[in-house]
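Q: I have 540 residues here and want to know how they pack in 3D. Can you give me a structure?
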Amino acid sequence: MPKRLALLITGVTLVITANLLSNEQTPSQASVERLEADVRFLSSDLLEGREAGTRGYDLAALYVAQRFRALGLKPGGDNATYYQAVPMLEYAPGADNASLRIDGIDLVAGEDYLVFPSAKGESIDIRAPLVFGGMCFASERERRDDFLDLDLEGKIAACIWGAPKYLNSEERAHYRSTQGERVSDHGGTGGIFVYTSSFEQVLPFERLKRMLGSSHSSMTWLESDGTPFSSSPNLKVAAVLSLAGAQKLFESAGQSWGEILKDAESDRGEVDRFDLGVEANITVESRHRKLKSNNVVGILPGTDEALAREHVILMAHLDHVGIKPTEEPDDDEIYNGAMDNASGISALLEVARLLKASPPKRSVVFIALTAEEKGLNGSDYFARNPTLPADDMVAAINLDMPILTYNFTDIIAFGAERSSLFEPVKAAAEAHGLTLSPDPIPEEGLFTRSDHYMFVRQGVPAVYLKPGFSDGGQEAQEKFRKSHYHEASDEVDLVDFSALQRFTDVKADIARNIANMPERPVWNAGDFFGTTFEGPMANE
């Protein structure tokens, strides 16, 4: 980063801090002026949309680090700094078209199938026998193993993309997102994930096609030896089949796609499994680029001698989607991400100020995370490579894109009911006259789709906080998602700062309540995520 720009950011931070210190509100209340100043700077064009690995993101990280320093937080990153360096690999579609060929079937790219870019190599060409694994579902808890007596070693698995409908929606989302891991665990070298009618409603094939366009890129973090991290190391490449493509595949094999789809859509999703008797050939060219980006970490030490070694993690992602060039000269090309997630970072900074004024018993770790938009990479890296002892992470709280365009009257705490975090969250909500509402969109499985989930996968009880759907909230949130989510129009004038103030106040009290719990947070006895990831359980 040019020294001049770094000095500029430092100067801006100092000016903002000095101006706001002269206009202090009561220590128990968030400052509208502080919140607005942070959102305005973080969503300014100077930061160029804060895409991980860019100068704009680095400027944003410097700003947050300076704010942590001004607030008096201890450095919690590498080598007594506020930065935890995250080495990453960016991978994107290459110049050559990816292809999926199955013996005897005429498949059309973009209509029948899509192929994902791969972090496993810049040029991959795999030809192997194709085996249908049904839903590719395996769970000791559910006493079911779709891989039983199914030889996948060195083969490509075709899997119904989803999980049994009878499962809790969050559990179903977990199994759907980890199908590739199970294929890899059983030796599969490739995966073809097959659309169903119900999954088409969740993620339309055409939407996925747009998402995987030529400008798409993903990231994964790098191991210490430079190897790209993967939770499915054997799986070299993955593709999806549309409903139309699935019909071609199964009818070519003499199977009734209608019957398979009916079984897949049933409550238990039990589908016959069989060797398709053909080979599939998947090729993909990917562009690779190594880079580094920083998580920004500050620590507020706890006041209780016995509890201070336990740390509550409070996080928000700092990155957005950057710049997207258009052919129209007057189009806004900078995706500033005021709501997503400058608002969450501003709340994080203000919660830090409020807790610093009256520290809780446990220590609190404040993290501005990188590369959330590229696959939850900053959170996954920190959760697996924490800058504090892993056993000392006792709870995680996530602030991700609170949609604050309206006067919310309830909040949603995804995952709170699964652990002892529920009561302190509920108490804070009620103290602010807010209702704690259940998940209004369980079909989306949001508990498994944001940064806190990487800590859940390490056994840490977590909660993901959002304004609720009551009193016009549903309409307001749907409007934002339809018109402004990941669009250049996500600008500061959308933010209702009085709503952001209320959101921040209740989040500060939630964090304080959790950090002051007399006992370490634990998962409820027998909870799915607690048992799956071997977290601390009640009544062990």
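Q: Anything worth noting?
A: The radius of gyration is 24 Å. The chain has two domains: 3-72+301-532, 91-288.
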